[in-house]
Amino acid sequence: MSPTLHDEIREVVKEYPEPRSAIIPALRLAQERHGGWLPDEAFRQVAEALDVTPAYCVSIASFYDMFHTEPVGRHLVEVCTNVSCAVSGAQRVVEAFERELGVHAGETTEDGNVTLRTVECLGGCGWATVVAVDNRHHLRVQAGDVGGIVKELGE
Amino acid sequence: MSSAPEIVFAGTDGGALTELAAYEAVGGLTALRRAREMTPAQIVAELEASQLRGRGGAFFPTGRKWSFLPKPEQNPRPHYLVVNADESEPGTFKDREIMLRVPFRFLEGCLVAARAIESTRVFVYIRGEYLREFEVLVSALEQLRARNLLGDVTIVLHRGAGAYICGEETALLESLEGERGQPRTKPPFPAIAGLYASPTAVNNVESITTVTPIIEMGGAEYAKLGVEDSTGTRVFSLSGNVVRPGNYELPHGYPLRDLIYEVGGGIADGRTLKAVIPGGSSTPILTASEAEKVTLDFDSLSQAGTAIGSAAVIVLDDRCCMVQLGVRVSQFYEHESCGKCTPCRVGTRWLTQILKKIEAGHGTHADLDLLLDVGDHVNGTCLCPLGDSDAIAVASYVAKFREEFLQHIEDGGCPFHGTSSLDGIVAPTDVHEAHAGGAEIHRPLEVVG
Fold it and tell me: What digits encode the pLDDT tens for the residues B109-141?
């Protein structure tokens, strides 16, 4: 039998002197179990496991860019548009994704497969443009590479 | 290419040392063995002799920082070592490569540093976006544990979740305690009351990794590298419009010109150099002629009115519109402002709005004055330097490229007419505003077919 979310969180808590320190890993585990975002149910579960209120969990999740409080696609495509990527052609990469996926940055495809968004510096400035696909970084991406990346994401 | 000695990346031969046996084959774990025969005070003394200064951006002497922690008999609470692996300053990507290529040198440094401050609990706060780096560290830590090399020290690898502000040490500690990552008032400094109000040393990944070779070679020997006030080597992150961007380990004092033209292969696409941001996006910009003269060390860059910061060198060619650069940089700080201090929360947004107005051709001379005035009211008025960074960076663009700002105002538009390398860039803040029903930023989608 696979462990419940509650069990997994209680396991992570053991790494820390104080349970509340585990809130980021706990929210991450909950997000993974809820299709990449945090519905109310997820906040209730995390709150229960850490003995804090659901509102407290929401206040933490809303602070960090990697937590999603609204539904996202099955895949998340994030294009860095900070200075070094920007001067190396990031905007053309963003536009290529927009064309391939038929959505604007910040939107999810109609079939719920892919969410596209622009993000701040991903820490790959010398390998511009950096594109994170489900947190895996593709480096030196050019507009011409976008079709292949989208194809791998399937339907 | 330079023939400079590699200290941080020694023994890698351009590759990665991710297996413990391979690391030991190039002399790895020597420092750990030596440190375990030294007293904590002796380790701190070696660090002070090395004159190592923090590689995260503040350049504070590492040994001195450790010496501020009370002894366990003075304060019986647990002592903590917290490693700041939340690298997020735009332009900076060195700590990531260090963790990927020399994870054991980094973890060995953690163990030595923990001994120096008499700590048995180490937390590595690694930015959430660095998933592969986290996995490499998990594997390396497991290998050390399997060989019983950790002694009585517990190392916890803690992933963040995407917030630039958590690179500020007190915000990082708040985040690690399970709070929103907002900076604390200082004092007390972390050395006195840091994680869980206990004595805490917070050090950057590159600083901690450099501890290992310092114990291997001795502090005095390390101090012979580099230049006065900036000893040792530095991993420079070179990015932007150069032929060969990447991380390069070079001694402090290396000429910026040589980094760009020799190591970096010069300006890409046959363009000409316009400006250089020398130490991450929060440092003041240098014009091309200023960039010709400086060397990459604390003193030279301070004298040039800027800073070595995180040693992230962003090269900009003649296609870069300085007003657009201001918009893009200011949007970043606006997005990342934690909202705790009013001058930063309001000021970063205000700076962006004024810059956008100037870029759109609706700015007046009064707006340019207002831009600098708003910056002056942000600078130095907050708990942490995030807002300052925006104000200082933008003010430097105006100071160095005033004519270009005036041209936008007097011509009623951008003199680049859509040809700037930053033209039309969709920043996250733009997307937020569009979703909140604000300014329409999107170009209509073209139907291809």
Answer: 999 999 999 999 999 999 999 999 999 999 999
CATH number at residue B404: 1.20.1440.230
Measuring CA to CA, which residue among B4, B3, B5, B7 is closest to residue B216?
Answer: B7
What is the token pair recorded at B252? 């402090």
Tell if the CB–CB gap between B431 and A83 is shorter than 8 Å: no
Q: For residue A19, which residues of chain B lie inside 8 Å, CB to CB?
A: 178
| Domain enclosing residue B341, as ranges | 323-432
Indicate whether this model's pTM tops 0.95: yes
What is the tally of helices (H) and strands (E) in chain B?
A: 20, 13
Whole-angstrom CA distances from A75 to A27, A71, A82, A128, B179 are 18, 11, 22, 21, 28
CATH of domain A75-154: 3.40.30.10
Band (B449; pLDDT cuts 50, 70, 90): very low
Asked if the C-beta of B93 comes within 8 angstroms of chain A's C-beta atoms, the answer is yes
ipTM of the predicted assembly exceeds 0.95: yes
Decide if B238 touches A, using CB distance below 8 A.
Answer: yes
- Interchain contact B171–A (C-beta under 8 A): no
- The CA distance from B320 to the nearest CA of chain A, in Å, is 7
Q: In this structure, are B108 and B257 located in the same domain?
A: no
Please report whether residue B364 resides in a domain.
yes
The answer on B168 and B293 residing in a single domain is: no
Q: Are residues B305 and B338 in the same domain?
A: no
CATH number of the domain at A5-63, please?
Answer: 1.10.10
Nearest to A87 among B87, B121, B241 (CB): B241
Residues B305 and B352 grouped into a single domain: no
From the number of C-beta atoms within 10 Å of its C-beta (0-12, 13-18, 19+), residue B439 rates as: exposed
Cβ distance A84 to B180 less than 8 Å, yes or no, reads no
Task: Tell me whether B164 touches chain A (CB under 8 Å).
Answer: yes
Kindly report, residue by residue over B421-437, the tens digit of the pLDDT.
999 999 998 888 888 76
